[in-house]
Write a structure and sequence with these properties.
Elements lengths: L1 H31 L10 H29 L5 H58 L22 H70 L15
Helix pairs in contact: 1-3, 2-3, 3-4
């Protein structure tokens, strides 16, 4: 009879402990919900947050390991372990929120700085193209040299003047014909540089969008996991003999 009463008392205590644990887990979930994390204002602050998260996560794991060893010396082992796990879970939920916010800020800041660099590169390419266009050669002025003193033998003065004039005119025509082609090559080079800058900007924007989408999915999954309440399993009480 005494043994039966002892078993009934132990079973009743276990049911009450499990019920209390379930109530405590629900209250913790209601209290936590979606963690509110202060906005990060600089990369240095984000790095400090990530360092603090790593330190607190290690401390939480150490505390849980120590508490786990203590629970195995208690009568209600499962109840003790559930409380320790719930405490660690709440800490990790908060730390993951802080970690996600800090990482998001660092990625956004990196994209912002990259956009600034791309804008500077594009502006530099535009200025360089304008300078190249302004430096195109001007029309060549044909200057007829003074006729050389006549020589006793050889070509006449008129023939030499005609040859020199033809040579100067030919060179001027060649320079004038080459100027548009040179200008076209320089314009094509400037356009190629501008297209490369625009392409890099589009790639950076797509990368930022994919990272933001992945971050949103991760945050949604974490919020869904945090909002799922723990279900208490009732323990049947054996009938009295």
């Amino acid at each position: 009879m005494a043994n039966t009463l002892y078993k009934l008392g132990a079973a009743l205590g276990l049911v009450l402990a499990l019920s209390g644990c379930a109530h405590q887990g629900a209250a913790a979930l209601d209290e936590v919900g979606v963690p509110q994390v202060p906005a990060t204002l600089s990369v240095e602050e984000a790095d400090a947050k990530l360092k603090q998260v790593a330190s607190e996560r290690a401390a939480a794991e150490d505390e849980f390991a120590a508490r786990e060893l203590e629970c195995y010396d208690k009568f209600f082992v499962n109840s003790c372990l559930d409380k320790a796990k719930e405490k660690r879970r709440l800490i990790l939920v908060r730390l993951r929120a802080v970690e996600a916010e800090a990482n998001y800020f660092k990625r956004a800041e990196s994209v912002r700085l990259r956009d600034i660099d791309l804008a500077r590169t594009q502006e530099s390419a535009r200025v360089d193209a304008e300078q190249r266009a302004a430096a195109l050669p001007k029309p060549v002025k044909v200057v007829t040299p003074e006729p050389a003193p006549p020589k006793p033998q050889g070509k006449s003065v008129a023939e030499r003047e005609a040859e020199q004039a033809a040579k100067v005119a030919k060179q001027a025509a060649a320079d004038a014909a080459e100027a548009p082609r040179r200008a076209a090559r320089e314009a094509a080079y400037a356009k190629k540089q501008a297209d490369a800058v625009a392409r890099q900007k589009r790639v950076a924007q797509r990368l930022a969008e994919r990272q933001a989408e992945a971050q949103a999915k991760a945050a949604k999954a974490a919020a869904a996991a945090a909002s799922t309440p723990a279900v208490a399993v009732p323990v049947p009480v054996p009938p009295a003999k």
